[in-house]
Amino acid sequence: MNISFLKKRKATSLGIDIGTSSIKMVELTKGEDVLKLTNYAEIISPKLERKSFTPLEMSSTQVLGEGIAELIKKTLKEAQVRTRLASISIPVFSSFITTMTLPFMTKEEVAQAVTFQARQYIPVPISEVVLDWTLLKEIPEGGPPQKIPILLVAVPEEIIRKYTDIAALSGLQVKALEVETFSLARSLIQDDKSSICLVDFGARGTNITIVDGGMVKVCRSIETSGSEMTKVLAGSLNIDFKRAEDIKKERGIRRGGGEEEISQIISPLVDIIFFEIEKITAIYFQKNGTRVVKFILTGGTAKLPGLVEYFVEKFGREVRIGDPFRGIECPPVLTPILKEIGPSFAVAVGLAMRELR
Ligand SMILES: Nc1ncnc2c1ncn2[C@@H]1O[C@H](COP(=O)(O)OP(=O)(O)OP(=O)(O)O)[C@@H](O)[C@H]1O
Ligand SMILES: [Mg+2]
Questions:
Q1: Domain extents for the chain?
Q2: pLDDT, tens only, 303-337
Q3: Which pTM does this prediction carry?
Q4: 111 CA from centroid of ligand 2 (Å)
Q5: What is the CATH number of domain 96-154?
Q6: In this structure, what is the dihedral angle of CA atoms 327, 14, 58, 152, given to the nearest 10 degrees?
Q7: How far away, in angstroms, is 301 Cα from ligand 1 center?
Q8: Using CA positions, which residue lies closest to atom 18 of ligand 1?
Q9: For residue 92, with 0-12 CB atoms within 10 Å meaning exposed, 13-18 middle and 19 or more buried, which class applies?
Q10: Under CATH, what is the fold of the domain 9-94+157-231+252-354?
C-alpha cells in the first residue's frame, strides 16, 4: 500500500541576505537528522544579473528598490526555489547593537525597565525603532543581587519597512527579519561555547562581533571594507576598479615573491581593522575578564590572499575562515564550490537554519 501521502511534508526554509555587492539565497530542508542544501543562488550587482560568483561593487542604496525585487522574483522562479517563506537579514550598519546594565530586579520588571532605559543608549527616537533585547546572564535566584547585563538591538522602522516592501514585491512572505550578525553566529559557531571574535569582512564594511558562551555579546561595525581596498588599489596603481578587484583577489596582502607593492597598499586598511579588533577585544577582557581564544573570519574579503597568515602573525591565536556549510548535506560535486563561496553565504545559511533548528 502506498502511504506516502500521509508523510509529513518536509520543513523547508529560505534565507536571503541582501548584501552590498550581491544578494545571496539559501534554501535548506530538514531531513531525518540533518539539514540538506536544496538550493542556493547569488544575484550580482551592478546590473543585478544572475551570474556566477564574482561580486561587483554597488552601493546599498542602489540595491534597495523595485529592481531588486524583480530580480529576486525571477531568481526564485528560475532556481525553482520551493518555499516563499523567507528569513531576511538586516545589515549591522542599519541597526544599533549595544549593551546596558540594569540594577538587580525580577525578570518581569526587566521588560519594562529595558524599554525605558533604552532611550539613553539608542541615538534615535525610541518611537521610530523596533527594539529587541536579551539577557546576557541569567538572573540568579537567591544569592546576592547582581547587576543585570542586557544586549539591546534596535532597528529603525524605516529600515524594517524597506525590507518588508522588497519582500512583498518579490512575492515573499517574511518569516523573520534578523540582524546579520545573529545569522552568522548560528551558521559559523553552532555549539562552540568558547570566547570567539567573529569578523565579517564585507564589501561595504567590516563587522566585529564577540560571541561568548554561544551568545552575541558585543557587535561593532566599521567602514573599512573590501571595496575600499579595491578603490585604494585602483587609485594607487591608476587602474580601473575591475582590474584592481582582480589584482586584489589574486595577490591580496601576501608578501615575498616580488608582491610587496600590492601588499603595502592594501595592508594599512587591514591594520585599521586590526586596531579596532584589538580595541574591542581588550575592552571585553577588561569588563569581563575573558580573553578571546579564536578568530573566525567570514564575508567575501576573508578570502583575501595572505589575510589568515597576517591575522595569526598579529594575534597569535587560532584563526580560521568559517565554513557555514559544514554539517549540511549536499551533493559531493558541490563540495569545492561551497568551500569557495562559504564566506559570502554564511549569513544566508544562518537565516535558513533559523527555522529548522
Ligand atoms: N578572493 C577574494 N579575495 C579578496 N576579496 C574578495 C575575494 N572574493 C570576494 N572578495 C571581496 O568580497 C567582497 C564581497 O563580500 P560579501 O559578499 O561578503 O559582501 P556583501 O555581503 O555583499 O557586502 P556587505 O556585507 O558589506 O554589505 C567584495 O569586496 C569582494 O571584492
Ligand atoms: Mg555581507
A1: 9-94+157-231+252-354, 96-154
A2: 999 999 999 999 999 999 999 999 999 999 999 99
A3: 0.92
A4: 31
A5: 3.30.1490.300
A6: -80
A7: 5
A8: 299
A9: buried
A10: Nucleotidyltransferase; domain 5 (3.30.420)
